[in-house]
Amino acid sequence: MSTITYCKGLPTPASEMNALGFTTFEMFLDAFAPIFHKATCETANHLLSVKEFDKSKWNTYLQNTHGISKRHANGVISHAKRAVESAKECRIYHLKILAGKLKSIEKWIKKEETKLKNARKFYKKKNWQNSKTGCNFPLSSSLQYRNTNWQHLRFQLHNKKRRLHHLKKQIEHLKAAPIRVRVPRHQVFIVGSSDESYGNQVSQWDGNTITFRVPGCLEPQFGKSVQTTIGNFDRGINRLPTTGAKTWHFYYKDGKWCVAVQFTPSTINPVSRHSSYGCIGIDMNPGSIGWAYLDLDGNLKAHGQIPLQMGLPKGQQNAQIIGACLQLAQLATAFACPVVCVSEAARSAELDFSKKKEELRERGRKYARMLYGWAYSQFYKLLSSILSNRGIYLMTIDPAYTSLIGLVKYARQYGLACDEAAAIAVGRRGMRLTEKLPSDLTAYLDVKSGKHVGRLWSEVNNLIKKSGKVSSRHSYYSITVSNGESIVKPPVEVTKAGSKRKR
């Protein structure tokens, strides 16, 4: 089961402060943090140097070397393992991104060199002025910059080749370079266990006061234990149980010690009913989030859009996403129904964000701003956390052809925006309702009757792409595109006998 973490600043009661203006607990954390940091760095270096890690032997080594107990050493090992695993994952991801950028640049160079080569070949012809096809890259000059478009392209190719060489050297260096792990200072991490009192043997919290067992190396200075009053973790929806394991993390931030507790949350009473009684489908686009409420028969009862502003700083972007998630939570609570969205993994694979981000240098600044401003994965992570914290069930479905279904079937019928129409298709799929094609479409598709309905939508998608008559999503609101007369139906000619046959 997933865990939740509550954080707060460490209180400094006036009754506990000494002549220096610090509490005894803060003095203890200042003394213990360097020991913890040194042990964590040593553990991380050991994890990188060995193939098989013997936790028991290393725990004993930490106890004897740094004068800490077994429970303190478990926190050191756990903290170091997380840091090492994170560093390895970052190295793999970094190499993947660089390899993708390398491939994108090579593809761009090949394409532009071919274009320039064909243009030169065209102008070498004797009668190129009378050519019927024309040049794919005609020569032109700029009075402002005093050069031609060919010179500008050659300059771009020169810079791209330099960038290509730099990326190759960088990838070679990263593959051979050792992994470096960053371990922050001024931190103390204590792992909890459900078998121990208060969920942790070293750091025990009774709901108001926390008692920390001092390691042996600091007992002459602070005694057997130190304690301080931290109060409770007030939340509108508090899911911190009295029992169960509690992992404590003390860290120094912005000139003040903070405390965080990680735990398995207590269960909460469900608010949403089964999806067969209705649901809310959602679809996210760069500029808005469309939602649609469907009744038990799958009919549209309410719909709307939650606008999203692009290009905001990270803090404002997160605040905007949280506000949108809270609005969806209020809607789901009012209708007492679950929320249906597309699977994050399936949608990420469909959109292939990582591949698109690798091509940002070749796609332009406007495209880069749009893509980086679209916090897709962040939205679904926060939505899952907020809904589960309120007892609202979040369903995930396969996103195949949901946008196409919404545009073809529901956009013109209800007069909806594209994301609202897609939200209807998402909600109906979450209710296990099928999306059959209109009869005027199925009669002209070359698909066997025994095939799945998804095969029909795949055929419609291919025909629309081949037609070349849909230039934008606004085209789906016209009658000819909505019923498929001008796109899906093949042309029909009338013979002399008056019968019709397909061309």
Radius of gyration: 31 Å
Strand content: 15-25%
Apparent shape: flat
Strand order of the largest sheet: 12-11-10-13-14
Any descriptors?
503 residues; alpha+beta; Nucleotidyltransferase, domain 5; 3 domains; five-stranded mixed beta sheet; four-stranded antiparallel beta sheet; 16 helices; 16% strand; disordered C terminus
Structural account:
- The chain has three domains: 216 residues, no CATH class; 160 residues, Nucleotidyltransferase, domain 5 (2-Layer Sandwich); 68 residues, no CATH class.
- It is built from 16 helices and 16 strands.
- A hairpin with a 2-residue loop joins strand 8 and strand 9.
- The two termini are 60 Å apart.
- The C terminus is likely disordered.
Chart the SSEs and their pairings.
Layout: E1 4-9, H1 24-49, H2 55-66, H3 70-123, E2 141-142, E3 147-148, H4 149-176, E4 187-190, E5 203-205, E6 209-213, H5 219-222, E7 225-229, E8 246-253, E9 256-263, E10 279-285, E11 288-294, E12 300-307, H6 314-335, E13 339-342, H7 344-351, H8 353-358, H9 360-363, H10 365-373, H11 376-389, E14 394-397, H12 402-414, H13 418-430, H14 439-442, H15 453-467, H16 479-482, E15 492-494, E16 500-502
Parallel strand pairs: 10-13, 13-14
Antiparallel strand pairs: 1-9, 2-3, 4-8, 5-6, 6-7, 8-9, 10-11, 11-12, 15-16
